[in-house]
Amino acid sequence: MKAAVFHGPQDVRFEEIDAPALADGDVLLRVKACGICGSDLHTYKHGMFQQLGNPIEQGRVLGHEFSGEVIATGGPIPGVNLGDRVTSIGVGANAEYLRIPKERVAMLLPIGDKISYAEAATTEPLATSLHAANLANAQDNEIHLVVGAGIIGLGILQCIKASSNAQVIVADLSEKRLAKAAELGADRLIDVRSTPLVEALDGGSNFSEETLLDANIGTIDTVYDCAGMSKHFQGSSVLEQALAVVKENGKIVVVAVYEQSPNLDYNQIVRKGIQLMGSWAWSMEEFKIAADLIRKGEIDRQPLISHEFSLEQASEAYETQLRAETAIKVMFTP
Known about the structure:
Elements: E1 2-8, E2 11-16, E3 27-35, H1 38-46, E4 54-55, E5 60-61, E6 65-73, E7 85-87, E8 97-100, E9 109-110, H2 117-120, H3 123-136, E10 143-147, H4 151-163, E11 167-172, H5 175-183, E12 188-191, H6 197-202, H7 209-212, E13 220-225, H8 238-245, E14 246-254, H9 266-272, E15 275-278, H10 284-295, E16 305-309, H11 314-322, E17 329-332
Parallel strand pairs: 10-11, 10-13, 11-12, 13-14, 14-15, 16-17
Antiparallel strand pairs: 1-2, 1-5, 3-6, 3-8, 3-17, 4-5, 6-7, 7-9
């Protein structure tokens, strides 16, 4: 079968590999769409999170945001029929076919006939966004700030808007991503290329000790860090800035992965009574809710799909997803 195979940092190749064999109770999907996740990019750039790929004889097959069609089963399985259009959880979906093992068959979720396979393949990242939004539990009239308008940050915006009347501010350095945030209902945009985040929100332009230890500084109820800190970034991290702009007793939800450790003044957390929460992945219930939100049309994911590639274009697809100024969600459509 066709596959995009990871061999090492910045080395993803199109190859022909063996198709998976089915055991009793397994299901075989023909992959119709698979997105390139942020964690896939960390693997591609630096070799991080390789456990999220399916090991083969040489290399690994990445991909865990997918949808597909049931084309074979390991014996009769109640509720599963050939031709079913589904999404699910698993790894190794940067390929033509994917085996869903018996223990995960219960998580095969129907996508219906009204949405595309590409939209359905964004279920997993939406579940990640939903988990972050659930941690903050936005209330009407609160002010929430999303920093980083990739598919996770934009998904958080969608989840907040679908469940409350909270005001949502979105900050990014990509004109395309900010425009997409506006399209999805953001109340205010901050282009951090022209205006530093702290200056835009609080009128301050530096991180003096006197300013940062003032609990009265800050207007934001919850900040979502969807940007993180790349390995070679220099300057104040989003997390440092979040500590400055969040209000007293406010929340910070860290969704992004940090490739280096930021320098933090922990006195800010203490002085302002900040709730600092990490958000990783989702619960099974949140995955099901995310699938329902997409299937029922309550959240529209089509606007977030910026590029589609074949498996033969594996290297180009990964390089495109790296370009945050132009890409939001890159999909393989085998």
